[in-house]
């Protein structure tokens, strides 16, 4: 029997008082310290008031925290104290402290390691060569790109005397004069030792080169200096072989790596032999990093000169050049200003090389080594002058017949020059004024077939120099002869530069129009698409919708005939991605006349799916941080079309991550659509979206939430007083939700959406729809699986069932009974359905649900319910505490109590004493709170429950028993 009570009497209020500070803020006190006490920084007091004394100059203030740890460590945490202690020692950490101790113990020469002084000991060092200026891309960054680009499938050969295998070549050594023999011993080898290895694949060739590298280092470590020199000479001779010409740049990289190692070995060997006596001491020390030639002993100088004499005795020009360049750094032991003279001398010697390809790579190696030695740039300009002097020979008849023999095109042959030419031009551009660069540009432009020079110039010169003269470059590239390099390749490179460094504002439009005019007239669709791929970013970054639409129209015009677009899906995808990701107005891009027709060119499903996904991703990134909405029908239809493509791609084989990603993109689009006060058009959009997005639970859930929010907004606008029109509209919203929810696969999601939709329908006085939603949600409880997988972990759904039922009961308090269904029909249905869920035998969830049902019934028996919905007549007004209704409530209470008592009996049989005592206490508390104890049977039941609870008091906390005893009394 439920007892009547006043709701306000059951509420417990805590004492209220005003506070000035946050209760969780740490309290501090301010202490005045005199001389001899601990001093520290002065933090602000907790209440904002600080104590100070203007009369005592010797007094200092310090705020000490009440926290014991803070007091122990001067107001700071332990880690800060440890860091402070470490900072006062030699280093900030043990390793730094050890390093500092070693630095102090080592002599000055050892501290200056031969590798590099940049950044050592924390001191800045004046640059001594061009590479230290960090104005040029390091060769190491270019090395991998060259090896990957210049490959071959042809067979290679190698001539050497230091690797086994191959065909023996007998050298011609008929001279017996001792002097000539010594001069020629570096070129000739032991009889029967020279071998030629034929039919090597590229991979095998690289392996052989690595073996030579290993042989060189091993010979040096075994004090076989002459053998190491011979290996370096043989490697240099390989660079004269152009039989597989397309592999030459990669061969140059591999061989010069060996020569670099050889040069470093020679230099380090000379430095170890150049120990000198430091002034003021009698001990021999190593040379410092910035040594001068006068510090080098004569013996070391003689050894150094001996190396150069040996190299000068090499008969062939190419190995003599390369090996001397490799040890060029050793001139620092002989004379102070020898680098500049040697570099200019070697520059003139390279003029003796007849093959222009071999010559330009020799100049590249000379400039690469020279830039690491000196700040002088005179020799680089001289090398460029020599290159321009013989540039015409690249296109003469002899070269053309040679490349025809190698079966490569003139464009392919010209591209072999780019790595070397790029490095030299980049060296020329260092610390060069714009006027000087203009002179170089004019000289290159005046050459016949200057396309190769212009391409290398655009790759090597500063991007701001190119951008500031963008109009001039477009004019040049549109009119020059492009033999050897395609015009499309030049415009593609220019577009890449301007995308990152835009030209001046007044030039941008003319640059775009003139460039696209030339690109469109190339007559080669492949070249056009390669250029458009680069110019798409420039167009979308710096121009409005009109120019972007015109650009897309040009692309469509080129792709239209004969379904040629099927060959350029990748380029089209890149263009679309760049246009959307760089656009300033994403909505405007989607509404362009040529955007969707361009999207229709993607006929392959996998490509189209990827493109649509990228578009929605770019749209989400562009609109994630703003309040921009979509209300343009054209934009809405475009995004709906893209969403349809993604939705149709989802199948049973789609992975969970892919499904989640697609759902997130589509849901973001749905939430962005907002037609303002035009709710009917908004609902029409949701109806269309439901028909399109039927494969994604998340999208359908978002649509249902959006429709519920639409119905709630309608109620807020009419302030709860629906008109005939608004009432019909919210009923349509409720019907939309009720029809859409069954399409969702996940049972728990359906239950939650039914409950939410029923609550919204109840809020809008759609009682029939609300009853239908609540009834459907209750009937789904038996369908919930007992175990589900969440993020790879299997979890029980019992907790979800309890949470759902409690939420449902709080709503059913104010749901009026349907006259055709009987008293508390929905609660009776709930009590009938809940036991059908497969609870575990040891679970207390079902009994906990029954206890919450008792709370519900206790509230249902009250004359006035604790909360209501405006214009909804709940059961307290509907029945008016009619005795028949109260009797029905009490009968349901008896039924629920019987189920709880049966569960208590089962717990006793299973010897679950702790669970039994706990349930007895919980039921006792519910009876004390809501039942009429004046009834004898209720009082007897209460006493029995108390005795059952205290019977096993050793398994229950004593405080809980005392608290319940107080409530009972």
From TrEMBL:
InterPro entries according to UniProt:
VPS35L (IPR029705)
Task: Identify the keywords attached in UniProt to this record, alphabetized.
Answer: Endosome, Protein transport, Transport
Q: Which domain of life is it from?
A: Eukaryota
The record's subcellular locations are: Endosome
A single GO BP: endocytic recycling
Q: Where is the signal peptide?
A: none
> Might you report a single GO cellular component term?
endosome
Regarding protein family, the annotation reads: Belongs to the VPS35L family.
Protein's recorded name:
VPS35 endosomal protein-sorting factor-like
This protein's species is Anopheles christyi
Write the lineage as a comma-separated list. Eukaryota, Metazoa, Ecdysozoa, Arthropoda, Hexapoda
């Amino acid at each position: 029997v439920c007892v009547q009570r006043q709701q306000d009497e059951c509420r417990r209020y805590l004492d209220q008082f005003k506070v000035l500070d946050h209760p969780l803020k740490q309290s501090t006190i301010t202490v005045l310290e005199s001389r001899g006490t601990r001093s520290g920084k002065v933090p602000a007091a907790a209440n904002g008031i600080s104590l100070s004394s203007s009369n005592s100059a010797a007094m200092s203030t310090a705020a000490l925290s009440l926290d014991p740890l803070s007091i122990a460590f001067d107001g700071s945490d332990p880690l800060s104290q440890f860091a402070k202690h470490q900072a006062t020692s030699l280093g900030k950490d043990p390793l730094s402290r050890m390093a500092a101790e070693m630095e102090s113990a080592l002599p000055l020469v050892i501290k200056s390691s031969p590798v590099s002084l940049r950044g050592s000991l924390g001191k800045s060092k004046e640059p001594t060569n061009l590479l230290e200026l960090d104005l040029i891309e390091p060769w190491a960054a270019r090395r991998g790109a060259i090896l990957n680009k210049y490959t071959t499938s042809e067979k290679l050969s190698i001539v050497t005397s230091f690797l086994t295998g191959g065909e023996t070549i007998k050298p011609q050594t008929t001279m017996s004069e001792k002097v000539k023999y010594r001069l020629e011993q570096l070129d000739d080898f032991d009889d029967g030792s020279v071998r030629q290895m034929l039919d090597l694949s590229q991979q095998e060739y690289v392996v052989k080169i690595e073996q030579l590298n290993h042989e060189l280092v091993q010979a040096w470590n075994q004090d076989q200096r002459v053998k190491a020199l011979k290996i370096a000479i043989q490697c240099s001779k390989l660079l004269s072989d152009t039989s597989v010409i397309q592999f030459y740049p990669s061969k140059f990289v591999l061989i010069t790596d060996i020569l670099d190692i050889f040069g470093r070995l020679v230099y380090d060997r000379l430095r170890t032999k150049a120990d000198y006596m430091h002034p003021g001491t009698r001990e021999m020390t190593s040379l410092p990093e910035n040594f001068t030639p006068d510090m080098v002993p004569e013996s070391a100088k003689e050894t150094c000169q001996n190396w150069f004499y040996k190299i000068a005795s090499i008969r062939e020009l190419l190995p003599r050049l390369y090996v001397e360049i490799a040890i060029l750094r050793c001139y620092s032991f002989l004379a102070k200003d020898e680098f500049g003279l040697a570099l200019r001398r070697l520059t003139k010697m390279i003029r003796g090389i007849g093959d222009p390809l071999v010559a330009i790579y020799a100049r590249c190696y000379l400039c690469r080594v020279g830039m690491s030695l000196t700040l002088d740039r005179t020799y680089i300009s001289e090398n460029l002058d020599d290159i321009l002097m013989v540039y015409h020979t690249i296109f003469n008849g002899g070269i053309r017949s040679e490349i025809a023999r190698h079966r490569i095109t003139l464009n392919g042959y010209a591209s072999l020059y780019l790595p070397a030419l790029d490095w030299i031009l980049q060296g020329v551009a260092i610390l060069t004024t714009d006027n000087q660069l203009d002179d170089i540009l004019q000289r290159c432009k005046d050459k016949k077939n200057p396309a190769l020079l212009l391409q290398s110039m655009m790759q090597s010169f500063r991007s701001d120099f190119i951008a500031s003269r963008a109009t001039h470059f477009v004019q040049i590239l549109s009119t020059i002869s492009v033999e050897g390099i395609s015009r499309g390749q030049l415009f593609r490179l220019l577009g890449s530069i301007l995308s990152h460094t835009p030209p001046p504002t007044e030039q941008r439009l003319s640059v775009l129009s003139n460039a696209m005019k030339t690109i469109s007239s190339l007559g080669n669709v492949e070249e056009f698409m390669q250029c458009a791929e680069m110019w798409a970013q420039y167009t979308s970054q710096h121009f409005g919708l009109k120019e972007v639409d015109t650009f897309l129209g040009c692309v469509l015009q080129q792709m239209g005939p004969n379904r040629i677009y099927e060959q350029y899906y990748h380029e089209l995808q890149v263009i679309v991605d760049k246009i959307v990701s760089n656009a300033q107005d994403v909505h405007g891009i989607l509404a362009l006349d040529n955007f969707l027709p361009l999207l229709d060119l993607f006929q392959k499903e996998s490509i189209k799916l990827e493109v649509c996904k990228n578009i929605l991703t770019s749209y989400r990134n562009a609109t994630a941080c703003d309040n921009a909405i979509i209300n343009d029908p054209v934009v809405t239809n475009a995004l709906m079309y893209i969403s349809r493509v993604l939705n149709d791609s989802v199948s049973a084989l789609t992975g969970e991550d892919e499904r989640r990603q697609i759902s997130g993109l589509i849901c973001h689009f749905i939430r962005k659509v907002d037609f303002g006060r035009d709710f009917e058009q908004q609902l029409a959009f949701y109806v269309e979206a439901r028909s399109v997005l039927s494969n994604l639970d998340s999208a359908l859930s978002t649509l249902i939430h959006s429709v519920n929010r639409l119905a709630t907004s309608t109620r807020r606008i009419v302030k709860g007083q629906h008109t005939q029109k608004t009432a019909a509209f919210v009923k349509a919203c409720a019907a939309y939700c009720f029809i859409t929810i069954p399409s969702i696969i996940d049972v728990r999601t359906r239950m939650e959406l039914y409950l939410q939709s029923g609550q919204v329908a109840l809020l809008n006085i759609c009682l029939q729809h609300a009853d239908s939603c609540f009834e459907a949600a209750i009937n789904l409880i038996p369908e919930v699986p007992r175990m589900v997988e969440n993020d790879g972990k299997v979890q029980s759904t019992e907790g979800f069932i309890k949470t759902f039922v409690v939420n449902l009961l709080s709503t059913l308090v104010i749901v009026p009974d349907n006259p055709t269904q009987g008293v508390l029909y929905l609660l009776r249905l709930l009590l009938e359905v809940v036991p059908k869920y497969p609870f575990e035998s040891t679970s207390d969830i079902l009994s906990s649900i029954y206890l919450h049902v008792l709370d519900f019934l206790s509230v249902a028996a009250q004359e006035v319910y604790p909360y209501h919905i405006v214009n909804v007549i709940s059961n307290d007004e509907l029945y008016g505490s009619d005795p028949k209704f109260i009797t029905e409530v009490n009968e349901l209470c008896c039924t629920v109590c019987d189920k709880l008592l049966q569960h208590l009996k089962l717990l006793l049989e299973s010897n679950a004493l702790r669970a039994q005592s706990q349930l007895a206490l919980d039921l006792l508390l519910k009876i004390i709170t809501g039942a009429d104890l004046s009834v004898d049977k209720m009082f007897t039941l209460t006493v029995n429950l108390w005795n059952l609870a205290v019977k096993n008091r050793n398994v229950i906390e004593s405080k809980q028993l005392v608290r319940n005893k107080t409530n009972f009394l």
